[in-house]
Amino acid sequence: MKIDLTETNSSRINAAMVQARRDIGTPAIGMVLTLVIVTDEENAYDALRSANDASHEHPSRIIVVIKRVSRSPRSRRDARLDAEIRVGADSGSGETVVLRLHGELVDHAQSVVLPLLLPDAPVVVWWPDGAPSDLAGDPLGALGQRRITDTYSCEEPIGALGRRAAAYAPGDTDLSWTRITPWRSMLAAALDQQVFAVRSAVVEGEDENPSCELLAMWLADRLQVPVGRTRSSGPGLTAVRLETKDGEIVLDRADGALATLCMPGQPDRAVALKRRDTAELLAEELRRLDPDNTYESALKFGVSKLAAQASEAAEAPAKAKPKAEAGAPAEAPAAKPASPKPAKKPTAK
Questions:
Q1: pLDDT score, position 235
Q2: What is the dihedral of CA 97, 98, 102, 108, to 10 degrees?
Q3: SS3 sequence, the chain?
Q4: Is the predicted pLDDT of residue 29 greater than 90, yes or no?
Q5: What gap in Å lies between CA 306 and CA 323, rounded to an integer?
Q6: pLDDT tens digit string along 171-223?
Q7: Main-chain dihedrals φ then ψ at residue 84, nearest 5 degrees
Q8: Which of 29, 75, 96, 129 has its CA 20 to 30 A from that of 60?
Q9: For the purposes of burial, counting CB atoms within 10 Å of the CB of 50, is it exposed (0-12), middle (13-18) or buried (19 or more)?
């Protein structure tokens, strides 16, 4: 069922949702959280489709906030709220409210969303694109226990990681971090099978890919070893190499679906490591509502520190070389011959 409301307010929207649930015969609310999606018209369809798919695992009330930019000064002064309500089969396993804010109401989105939140239920705020630098400081972000963004959608993903680290607050997370969960699980399991002393690591992947940087920072933070970054044609993250005294541990995924795990003294094995869609990533993040301390530690390790660590590791062998160039060793200086002592003159008896 779909209901369109024009020039409405939050009270009318709540009343319309209650009536819609009665009309379809489900007056009880069985939703576990409120998911607030802050997006624009261009990305609203894809974001809502992913949220509906994730709602089959986490029944939720989905509130989509679309801020309509007004072009003329007069329309910017006129505040108007239009809403579209979806319940039943049109809204996954919960209910959906699409809010379109016009005029001055764009700057007061939190006052519109607050009355529509489920009572006594967690709130998750998700920015599919165009997230603010300070997620917790944003008026809508302040409503949520968890705040989800995706630095992969930013124009400068690596710079966005630095801004996320500077303004991090407990509850912040990133879908670029969620994408590497299978990689982290596989590498941790490989190191648990045998005790390997890792000396260094290399992460291969697309250039300017935040997931590659986050995985490298996680390895450097946890293993306390230099981690390098090499560029590949993708797709996404393609390989991780861990150098140990017994040999190299390699997790290689060249096609984006199936990976090969190589370990010293063991046969190579194929492991499933497919690229997941946004709905699967979102469903994983909705499983936990507590702060992700591992993500915080890896994020605050910093891309700049990672680069400096790799640079120091590259310079270390050069400093260890002797000053003499390779070739024939320099001859030791010859010992000076002892000067002959003058002979004693014979004395007459």
A1: 85
A2: 50
A3: CEEEECCCCHHHHHHHHHHHHHHCCCCCCCCCEEEEEEECHHHHHHHHHHHHHHCCCCCEEEEEEEECCCCCHHHHHCCEEEEEEEEHHHHCCCEEEEEEEEHHHHHHHHHHHHHHCCCCCCEEEECCCCCCCCCCCCCCHHHCCEEEECHHHCCCHHHHHHHHHHCCCCCEEEHHHHCCHHHHHHHHHHHHHCCCCEEEEEEEECCCCHHHHHHHHHHHHHHCCCEEEEECCCCCEEEEEEEECCEEEEEECCCCCEEEEECCCCCCEEEECCCCCHHHHHHHHHCCCCCCHHHHHHHHHCHHHHHHHHHHHHHHHHHHCCCCCCCCCCCCCCCCCCCCCCCCCCCCC
A4: no
A5: 29
A6: 999 999 999 999 999 999 988 887 778 999 999 999 889 999 999 999 999 99
A7: -130, 120
A8: 129
A9: buried
Task: Convert the pLDDT of each residue in 249-272 to its tens digit.
Answer: 999 998 878 899 999 888 999 998
Tokens of 264: 């010293």
- Rounded to two decimals, the pTM is 0.84
- Structure token pair of residue 268: 């190579």
